[in-house]
Amino acid sequence: MSQRLAKVPKEGATQQSKIRLVLFPLPLQGHITPMFHLATLLHSKGFSITITQTKYKSLDPTLFPHFTFHLLDDGLPDNATFDPNNHTMILDTLNTNCSEPFRNCLTQILSKEPIACLITDPMWSFTKSVASSLSLPRIVLRCASMSTFYVYHSLPFLREKGYYPLQETKSDEPVPELPPLKVKDLPPEAKHNLLVDIITEMENSQGIICNTFEELEDFYITRVHQVLPIPIFAVGPIHKNSPSFQASIWTQDHTSISWLDTQAPKSVLYVSFGSMVQVSKADFVEIACGLANSKQPFLWVVRHGSIEGSDEIDPLPLPEGYLDTIGQRGNIVNWAPQQEVLAHPAVGGFWTHCGWNSIMESISEGVPMLCLPFFADQNINTRHISDHWRIGMELDKGVKRGEIERAIRKLMVEEEGETMRNRITALKEKATLSVMEGGSSYKSLENLTNYLLSF
Ligand code: UDX
């Protein structure tokens, strides 16, 4: 392996350019973003990149002229929509429909040229069997944290210990086996089958690439390696490692940046609950009032379809006179260039749902967080932010305007927020160093490059 390492040119390698990798993202924003960053990174290392994408939520190939694209017929009508509260249904349908098209696509590529390795999302539950039937090596890209993966892997043990069925009365009790988690952070039983599928896909892969860095999650990377003795490549923050580009399902509103340019340094609270969360109309109004009453400037992303019972053309259910009251102090957009927003000097805090990409992007820019988790890994992520790394705080007393106002002021102008800002600034330095020459993620990427060359 080390001999091969010596042969690898640092950037724009030529040796690898004939070596084709096929990457297969899941068509959800939180999975597309890191997969496209990884593709860009591996392309910069000289590999030829093919992206297979579903028709559903496919990105425009002309934005990525350096990649080859294959569109899979996912069997869905062109205007397919899913109940945003039923993510399992989207995954089940796509997993049922895409297995054969994916196999056919790979067979077609293989009839023309060899494929060195597949890189797939572990939430595709059929790529293991397709890869082995075609004798192709397969690595998975874990888009969420390693701590959540370790929790998922520990579910049988937690069941043995009597944590399941989860008991409401014990929800605030700690889980001493997995500090700093509380019982309420554990995944609900209804999701266990899905989580077992993810684990199986990862267990049977030849490696795991993850969007994290050793200085942040060394403890869990080591634990996962103990239970899954396969290579792990922590190459995050993955977006800091690759040139910036637009891998967005929705059009980003760049007026967010010109508005931020008019604001004082570290004064703005950026608010976004990611690409899947929906809030009730009642909570939306509480959020709007909490933001206004906090008197802090804010940039608020309200994605189309993110309010229950509303569709794209409905006006936002804001209280009467709201926009006049906030004036220039607030800016509401449909979708923002989030990585640029978080890097802007005017941004001083991030109210987030705690999706893993958002967390990595916030850490990368040293922006402390106010956490409002909704589902999936977001509860576990929140616990680490508030109780482990202490770079943010949980909005844990419900979505009520008074609580929101108090929490925002604490984060943005009080000493507690300043302490979190200092901690996350120190973590930002570690993240920055990790992707620089000699850093942990930089070395992991070199190891990954060499590993891919060994197939
Ligand atoms: C989903 C799950 O909600 C999350 O728990 C899991 O970790 C990943 O998949 P999502 O809701 O998409 O994540 O959130 P997140 O992981 O934070 O990813 C959102 C991505 O969209 C980020 O890369 C962010 O930069 C981008 N984004 C978000 C924008 O570009 N503009 C916006 O306005 C909001």
TrEMBL record:
Name assigned to this protein: Uncharacterized protein
One Gene Ontology molecular-function label: quercetin 7-O-glucosyltransferase activity
Gene for this chain: LOC110699198
UniProt keyword Lipid metabolism present: no
PANTHER family cross-referenced by the UniProt entry: GLUCOSYL/GLUCURONOSYL TRANSFERASES, UDP-GLYCOSYLTRANSFERASE 76B1-LIKE
Pfam families: UDPGT (PF00201)
Keyword Transferase: yes
InterPro entries, per database record: UDP_glucos_trans
Family the entry assigns: Belongs to the UDP-glycosyltransferase family.
Organism: Chenopodium quinoa
Keywords: Transferase
